[in-house]
Structures are given as structure tokens and as C-alpha cells.
Automatic annotation (TrEMBL):
GO terms for cellular component: katanin complex; microtubule; spindle. It is found in: Cytoplasm, Cytoskeleton, Spindle. GO terms for biological process: cell division; microtubule depolymerization. Residues 326-335 have a biased composition (Polar residues). The gene is Katnb1_0. This is KTNB1 protein. WD repeats lie at residues 3-45, 46-87, 88-129, 130-171, 172-213. Keywords: Cell cycle, Cell division, Cytoplasm, Cytoskeleton, Microtubule, Mitosis, Repeat, WD repeat. The lineage of its organism: Eukaryota, Metazoa, Chordata, Craniata, Vertebrata. SMART domains: WD40. It holds the Pfam family WD40.
Length: 335
């Protein structure tokens, strides 16, 4: 599916991860447009920014959207009221990355100015600034338990920050090029990162060491997404989707998709959706996950003769600690 998303060039696209079917696009026309995947009509057009939109993110329940601009300003819109909720000034340059906290009213932003800022959307204003990267911060992700934020940057590093203590917990080094994407495992203490060095690395968040590294690829890693049950990692490359396991590192499948430079991935009803943009158009692509192997039925490549075949860990059994999530009214243990 292809849509004419803006009157000028598209500069940013993101998928809502709640439904997996909401699409937000940002353009050089300084607008944020909201769409439903595979539907041609724009649902809403949000104005307020005065420079091109460089980064976008939708909150988990898809009621708020945050957009960062080339000038460094950030705006948060309430989608139900279709109005600007907050303007968050503070960065000195292009906003390269944004992420909403999984359950609190917080947003993290990363910039070309190398800083990461944590904002309280309700109370208005910057709570904390994390300094430590030496180049642009390309991707930010809060951990599922909401206690950490991971950052990926052009300085080849991935950093893990403790939100409670307000300090750096660990710096993961090993990538030899800009790190484009980072993603927490949905349950286990595991982090995946993808880089322009054409590798995907998996990091253990208890031992703070590399678990495995997948190095067989020909183009930069553009986006990564864990399957909701955590059994595998989907990685978006130019014109392909690859499905990985990490202990040991292996490739379960390669799906050729002509999505070009894919910009974001989401999952809805066992379908993986990918979006890409070129000039003023945005294209969406659907991969049927029921036809994609997600475990060791027939491994593709990455099995070497000098390594004994290890039986795969059964899906669902965990080698690592599981995140403690805050108990909500529906998840309190029964007395």
C-alpha cells in the first residue's frame, strides 16, 4: 500500500505498537499526519511545529503522540482532543529519537546535541538530562518495568541508564558503526541492538556482557522488534526481514520484502507490518507470521561445523531474570 502522506518530503514515520495498525507520519511541511495502516485517507493532521518533523512516537494506548523537530523543540498532542498538550523546549538541535514510558506520563528524547532528556508530560518540563554520548542519540527505549532507559548512538555505543538513580548503569561497546536501533526483550533481562556495522548484538542485562552477535548481513540494520512472546527477534534490512535466535545465534528465516529502507515494524493479529518512506510517499507492507519459522525447525545458515548443535531452549523457559512489572488492578495476586 502506498499513500501520498505529505505535500513535501516525508521525514519520519512510526507505527503505534498498541494496535499495530496506527501510522503517524511527519514531514518537511512541519505537520504530523495520522493514518490507519492500508487505508488511504488521513484521519488527522496536527500542526504546531515550525521546522520539519525529525522523530515521532505514539504512547502505548495510542492516545498521545510526541513529535520532535529539526530545531530541537518537542510537542505532545492529545489525539482524542486533537490539540497540543505540551511544548517541551530544551534541546539545542535536531530531535533524533523519542520514546514513551510504558505506564508513567514520561517521555525520553535524544538529540543531535548528544543529550538525553526525561520529561514529565503532565507536570510540564524536563526532569533530568543524561549526558555521556558524544554523538547523536538515534534510538531510545524504556525497559518493560519502566526502571531503565537504553540509548543507541552514532558514537557506536549502547548505554543503559537508571531512571531512579539518574545515572549511567553500563556502556555496551562492540559495535564498529553508528547504532541505529535498540529494543528490550519483552520478559527477560536481554537487550538487542542493530547497527550500520551490519550486525545485531544481544546483551545480557544481569551480567552486562554480550550474549551473541549476528554478523552475516550485507546492509545496515534499520529496525528490530521482538516477537510478543519473546521467542525471536525480527530485523528489518533493506529489502528483507530476518528472523533471529540468540542462544546460540541463528537465523530462522529470511523473507524478501521490497520495502526499501524500512523505517519501523509492528505486529497485529499475527501479521508483521513494516513501513518505509521515499519523497512524499509512505508505503506499508504485511508479512504473514504464521508462515514464518520462529524456532529451530530448519535453521538457515549461521550453523558452523566447528560448533556442536545445541538443542534450542524451549520457548517460554527463561535463562534470565524476568522484569518485575508494577501490579495493576487486573494483575494483583489472588489472596
Amino acid at each position: 500500500e502506498e499513500i501520498m502522506a505529505h505535500s513535501s518530503n516525508v521525514s519520519s514515520v512510526v507505527l503505534g505498537k498498541g494496535s499495530g495498525r496506527m501510522l503517524a507520519t511527519g514531514g518537511d511541511d512541519c505537520r504530523v499526519n495520522i493514518w490507519s495502516v492500508s487505508k488511504p485517507n488521513c484521519i488527522m493532521s496536527l500542526t504546531g511545529h515550525t521546522t520539519p518533523i525529525e522523530s515521532l512516537q505514539v504512547n502505548p494506548n495510542e492516545k498521545l503522540i510526541v513529535a520532535g523537530s529539526r530545531s530541537g523543540s518537542i510537542r505532545v498532542w492529545d489525539l482524542e482532543a486533537a490539540k497540543v498538550l505540551r511544548t517541551l523546549p530544551g534541546h539545542k538541535a535536531n530531535i533524533c529519537s523519542l520514546h514513551f514510558h510504558p505506564f508513567g506520563s514520561f517521555v525520553a528524547s535524544g538529540s543531535l546535541d548528544t543529550n538525553i532528556k526525561l520529561w514529565d508530560v503532565r507536570r510540564k518540563g524536563c526532569i533530568f538530562t543524561f549526558k555521556g554520548h558524544t554523538e547523536a542519540v538515534r534510538c531510545l527505549r524504556f525497559s518493560p518495568d519502566g526502571k531503565w532507559v537504553a540509548s543507541a548512538a552514532d558514537d557506536h555505543t549502547v548505554k543503559l541508564w537508571d531512571l531512579t538513580a539518574g545515572k549511567l548503569m553500563f556502556e555496551f561497546t562492540g559495535h564498529t558503526g553508528p547504532v541505529n536501533v535498540v529494543e528490550f526483550h519483552p520478559n527477560e533481562y536481554l537487550l538487542a541492538s542493530g547497527s550500520s556495522d551490519r550486525t545485531v548484538r544481544f546483551w545480557d542485562l544481569e551480567k552486562f556482557q554480550v550474549v551473541s552477535c549476528i554478523e552475516e548481513e550485507a546492509t545496515p540494520v534499520r529496525c528490530v522488534l521482538f516477537n510478543p512472546d519473546g521467542c525471536c527477534l525480527y530485523s528489518g534490512f533493506q529489502d528483507s526481514l530476518r528472523v533471529y535466535g540468540w542462544e546460540p545465534e541463528r537465523c530462522f528465516d529470511v523473507v524478501l520484502v521490497n520495502w526499501g529502507k524500512v523505517a519501523d515494524l509492528s505486529i497485529s493479529n499475527n501479521q508483521l507490518i513494516g513501513v518505509s518512506f521515499a519523497q512524499s510517499t509512505v508505503s506499508s507492507f504485511v508479512v504473514d507470521l504464521s508462515r514464518v519459522p520462529k524456532s529451530d525447525s530448519i535453521p538457515h545458515g549461521l550453523i558452523r561445523d566447528d560448533q556442536p548443535l545445541v538443542p534450542p531452549t524451549p520457548t517460554g523457559s527463561s535463562l534470565r531474570r524476568i522484569y518485575d512489572r508494577p501490579s495493576t488492578s487486573c494483575s494483583k495476586p489472588q489472596r
